[in-house]
Amino acid sequence: MANDKLQKKKLYALSSENRQFSFNLPLKHSIKIGKREYDVKLKADEKLGTYILWKNRKYPVEIVKSRQNKYEILFNDISYTFTVETPFSLQRMKVLTAGKGKATTEYVKAPMPGKIIDILVREGSTVQRGEAVVILEAMKMQNEILSPANGTIVKISARPGSNVMKDDLLVEIKP
Amino acid sequence: MKIKRILIANRGEIAIRIMKTARLMKIETVAVKTAAEPNAMYLSYADFIFDNTEDNSEVPVFLDIEKLIAIALQMEANAVHPGYGFLAENAYFAQKCIDNKIIFIGPSPDAIYKMGNKTIARNLALKNKIPMAMGSQGNIANEEEAIKMAEKIGYPVIIKAASGGGGRGMRIVRKKDEMEKMFSIASKEAEKSFNDPSVFIEKYIENPKHIEFQILGDTKGNVIHLGERECSIQRKHQKLLEEAPSSALDDKLRKKMGSMAIQIAKAVNYYSAGTVEFLLDSEKNFYFMEMNTRIQVEHPVTEEITGIDLIEQQIRIANGEALKFRQEDIKLTGWAIECRINAEDVQAGFAPDPGKIESLSMPTDACVRVDTGVQRGSSIVPSYDSMIAKLIVKGKDRKDALKNTKMALDKVWIKGTKTTLPFFRMLVRHPKFQNGTFTTAFIEKDLEKFYYNSEYEEMLAAWLAIKLFVEENLSDDSISVDYKNGKELNPWLLNKRISQF
Fold first, then answer.
1. A92 with A165, same domain?
2. What is the nearest CA distance from A6 to chain B, expressed in angstroms?
3. Which CATH number is B18's domain given?
4. Contact state of A63 with B413 under an 8 Å Cβ cutoff
5. Are B383 and B36 in contact (CB under 8 A)?
6. A122 in helix, strand or coil?
7. Residue where a domain stops, chosen among A98, A120, A135
């Protein structure tokens, strides 16, 4: 059974910033740091809700989203998004994304719910990174939504006077 | 005591803060129950509750002058405390109270009006030779006039709403071709927020510290200051953390700025608690910015280092009593830091994240004070501000206060909404915050990351994601992944199986 050793039972958690964490299966309730194993305990109680106990400290945890192999975890008030991959699917993903990495469209989304006050660009106009493209009013503040990249406006989905939800698409920019 | 019963024209933590002191002074309180939060925690601190849940008015009751006066009269409250925000700096409301023989716990309508109108306040400061940033004498009518004025005083300039405050209607302009756009944004925002589109222009002081002085004045003409607060940690002019005293001031500068603050307060015969705001540049030049004629959100840090209950003083002054202490009696002891824990998503540009507080636990150490208006089960509703709690931590000096704050932040436990906690955990570890050299530009210029996580937190979160995945998909033997040679499970097939769950 030499192949057993070669093809270890593993799962990977790939973060949205492309950091990779691997865990052997069956999943142990401990993590090795250097030479020591530390217990990880997932617990819940009436007062605190769900938490992880690690090195004698409790950390609040919450599952914000879980869809197929994609998880958004709130750990100690910070949100992390992971996709869980098998060695095979990870390999396949790397092959698929190898050709990418340039000239993809930038999607400017509403960072918070609010009302579109003004659109400062037109389709076809060029913008610089950091230039205001939309003015969004939320909590009585007028917020300038800035372009994330240098490029050309290819599509404007927002309309002045309309209300938008968080993450609604406002503008598409082609770098 | 003339004041027998106070109507609290406010909600949340400040309503509770006022009612706690009133109770100590054996004064009764009336709170208003609203449809937006009928189960709010502040209601449980009141002696009487006025039920306003049936009110269908578009205007929130805390902004409805006629309604509040009617409630005070009906509930036989002979005084009103406005708290902060809402009508706290509305001269007409203060006058209406007086007209109805209700004691307004705050300054005179005249002082509110003069300091509330930034153009009048500027002229007052000018007359009293208070240092100020160069700027327009009056309001600016249009873009052309704005461009002319900006050229005279030199870029960068800041456009401010004449009736403004709290950062709304404020825009910085660095070059001529931005003026048209910024002028229109500032003016529109001013109109929306303050019902007054008029704006003026000032020289913009680059990278200043925000230093404000707490003032107390009585109706006999005595005015003293209770030292300064530093509020340079702000984002888009919204304060996030305040401390008292400031590491930028020594006794000499404190005395100088303090006496200027008293002078400007005296210029409007100020009584009650008030705050004079200054900008301090890197050469220790200071410039008068504005005076806030209300109790401030950050008042606890001053209370912690002076031992004076500011709400009690407001009530006593409104009652007609003379101040019991003189300037030389005021001693600043130790250091206090306040973190505003808001329901905001630090990872999404501090976007408000309203929701229900599922669990809440606060540190109970002696050096910690918590002012809050929520408890487990409370909701942070979109119609009001996003504050969850103010965490106020004391130490014998700044270093000690910082150490205690770091400890306290790790003990705060809030579930149900995202909070600004990760931001403060980062802040207390940042060298520039630790050494006190930060300015109001800190968040925009010095920060690359807005939150702190310890070394292993992301890995632990990853472990949890794997754990969930295993439990959802692989715990049942019938679908367990077979990694053996030649039997590698097709990921698409795996996905299909997962989707059945």
1. no
2. 9
3. 3.40.50.20
4. no
5. yes
6. coil
7. A98
Cis peptide before A26 (omega within 30 of 0): yes
Query: Buried (b) or exposed (e) across B292-330, using 16+ Cβ within 10 A?
Result: bbbbbbbbbbbbbbbebbbbebbbbbbbeeebeeeeeeb
Catalytic residues of B: 294
In a 3-state reduction of DSSP, which class is residue B133?
Answer: coil
Cβ–Cβ contact B92 with A under 8 A: no
Cis ω before B38 (30° cut-off from 0): no
Q: Is residue B491 part of a domain?
A: yes
Output the CA torsion sign for B461, B462, B468, B471: negative
Q: A92 contacts in B (CB within 8 Å)? A: 491
B174 touches chain A (CB under 8 A): no
Surface of A (87-106) touching B: CB under 8 A: 87-89, 92
Distance from CA of B76 to the nearest CA of A (A): 34
B148-190 confidence digits (pLDDT tens): 999 988 899 999 988 876 677 889 999 999 999 999 989 988 8
- Does the residue B393 lie in any domain? yes
**B501 Cα to chain A: minimum distance (Å):** 9
Same domain for A8 and A74, yes or no, is yes
* Nearest CB neighbour to A21, from listed B348, B462, B484: B462
Structural domain of B181 = 134-203
Angstroms from A37 CA to nearest CA on chain B? 13
Number of domains in chain B: 4
Whose tokens are 């309730």? That residue is A29
Tokens 């052309």 correspond to: B144
**H-helix or E-strand spanning residue A170:** strand A169-174
pLDDT in the model for residue A49: 86
Q: Are residues A133 and A163 in the same domain?
A: yes
Nearest C-alpha neighbor of B388 from the set A122, A77, A38, A71: A77
Q: Which domain holds residue A139?
A: 106-174
On whether the pTM is more than 0.90, the answer is: no
| Closest chain B residue by Cα to residue A42 | B464
Query: How many beta-carbon contacts under 8 Å exist across A and B?
Result: 163
Chain B residues 221-240 with a CB less than 8 Å from chain A: 236
CATH at residue A137:
2.40.50.100
Q: Are residues B101 and B138 in the same domain?
A: no
> In terms of domains, do B99 and B16 share one?
yes
Strands B223-235 and B209-217: antiparallel
DSSP string, B301-314: HHHHHH---HHHHH
Q: Is B217 inside a domain boundary?
A: no
Contact A175, A150 (CB under 8 A): yes
Is A62 in the B-facing interface, judged by CB distances under 8 Å? yes
Contacts of A131 in chain B (CB under 8 A): none
Q: For residue A102, what pLDDT is reported?
A: 54
**Contacts of residue B499 in chain A, CB cutoff 8 Å?**
68
Query: Could A166 and B351 be called an inter-chain contact, meaning their C-beta atoms sit closer than 8 Å?
Result: yes
The number of folded domains in chain A is 2
Nearest CA among B50, B52, B63 for reference residue B7: B50
What's the pLDDT score for residue A140? 67
pLDDT at B387 over 90: yes
- B14-49, pLDDT tens digit by residue? 999 999 999 999 999 999 999 999 999 999 999 999
